[in-house]
């Protein structure tokens, strides 16, 4: 079983580190059975953390969980207690239909047994960086709706009982409609509705990524009061890490970390993003991994006008 540390407990996260890439002396061999998880604790400094999986060189194919720090909040944020965010992605041409659908089901989402709510709709997603073969690079006319539920179980209960989603003509994944849930590590501050979704694919040096990007980026984001590492998925191919209700844009076999940071606004994001020190960190990151970076702002008024029908250049 993976450590409960991976799920986050407010500010009481333990601080882990990747080992040196050429040093495997830290590896502890467990019993000779598959999927044994190993942890290497380094310090007890606070802060959420990125967690990655590697396969050992053992013929037994043991799994090891290794963790790098991603957040040391300067403020105290409410710890998550099982809450999940549900992401629904669809094409802009479907916006009015999807908004009407959300309006009809908003009351049922809040009913006992599900107790969820709709955070709102983002009618424009800015693709800042895009890895090769990502469908985010093939078109620019996406919308996202976000929902929050007290638990993954209640999100599933809503999904399987919601009449709108069970309609025979509700759009299938083949029409690019996707619906999946991810666990929150801690709760973002109220009013923060601008999300930066990041996927780090094909990491070629975890030690370099930690030392030259993650640690330094965490300090920079703390300085600007960004809620970073609010969501983290260490293995998007695992059903216990990413709950695919109606598929997801992340492949089942993706070798990636997924992290969500939350900002006050897109203006705040651009101020941070364009700082010289953060630009230098991005350059370091690009040396050792491929990145998908998305920016979108959720509007709680789902009755608003439909989004633009023509794709952005």
Explain what the structure shows.
The chain is α+β, with helices and mostly antiparallel strands. The chain has a single domain, classed as Alpha-Beta Plaits, CATH 3.30.70.100. The protein contains 6 helices and 14 strands. It has helices spanning 95-109, 152-161, 163-166, 206-223, 266-273, 276-286, and strands at residues 15-16, 41-43, 49-55, 63-69, 84-91, 117-122, 126-129, 142-149, 178-183, 194-201, 227-233, 243-244, 256-263, 290-297. The strands form 4 sheets. A 5-stranded antiparallel sheet has the order 6-8-5-9-12. The radius of gyration is 20 Å and the shape is globular.
Q: How are the SSEs ordered, and which strands pair?
A:
Elements: E1 15-16, E2 41-43, E3 49-55, E4 63-69, E5 84-91, H1 95-109, E6 117-122, E7 126-129, E8 142-149, H2 152-161, H3 163-166, E9 178-183, E10 194-201, H4 206-223, E11 227-233, E12 243-244, E13 256-263, H5 266-273, H6 276-286, E14 290-297
Antiparallel strand pairs: 1-2, 3-4, 5-8, 5-9, 6-8, 7-14, 9-12, 10-13, 10-14, 11-13
Helix pairs in contact: 4-6
């Amino acid at each position: 079983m993976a450590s409960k540390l991976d799920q986050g407990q407010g500010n009481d996260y333990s601080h882990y580190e990747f080992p040196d890439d050429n040093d495997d002396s830290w590896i502890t061999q467990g019993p000779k059975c598959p999927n044994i998880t190993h942890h290497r604790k380094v310090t007890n400094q606070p802060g959420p953390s990125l967690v990655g999986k590697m396969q050992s060189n053992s013929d037994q194919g043991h799994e090891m969980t290794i963790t790098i720090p991603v957040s040391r909040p300067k403020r105290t944020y409410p710890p998550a207690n099982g809450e999940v965010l549900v992401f629904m992605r669809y094409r802009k041409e479907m916006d009015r239909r999807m908004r009407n659908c959300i309006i009809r089901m908003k009351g049922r989402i809040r009913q006992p047994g599900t107790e969820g709510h709709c955070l709102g709709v983002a009618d424009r997603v800015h693709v800042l960086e895009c890895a090769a073969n990502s469908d985010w690079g093939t078109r620019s006319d996406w919308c996202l709706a976000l929902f929050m539920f007290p638990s993954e179980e209640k999100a599933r209960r809503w999904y399987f009982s919601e009449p709108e989603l069970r309609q025979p003509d509700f759009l299938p994944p083949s029409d690019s409609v996707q619906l999946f849930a991810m666990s929150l590590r801690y709760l973002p501050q109220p009013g923060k509705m601008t999300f930066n979704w990041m996927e780090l694919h094909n990491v070629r040096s975890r030690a370099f990524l930690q030392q030259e990007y993650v640690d330094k980026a965490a300090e920079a984001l703390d300085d600007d009061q960004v809620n970073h590492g609010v969501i983290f998925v260490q293995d998007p191919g695992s059903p216990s890490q990413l709950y695919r209700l109606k598929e997801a844009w992340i492949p089942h076999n993706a070798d990636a970390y997924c992290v969500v940071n939350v900002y006050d606004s897109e203006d705040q994001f651009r101020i941070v993003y364009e700082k010289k020190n953060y630009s230098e960190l991005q350059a370091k990151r690009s040396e050792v991994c491929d990145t998908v970076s998305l920016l979108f702002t959720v509007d709680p008024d789902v009755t608003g006008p439909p989004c633009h029908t023509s794709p952005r250049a």
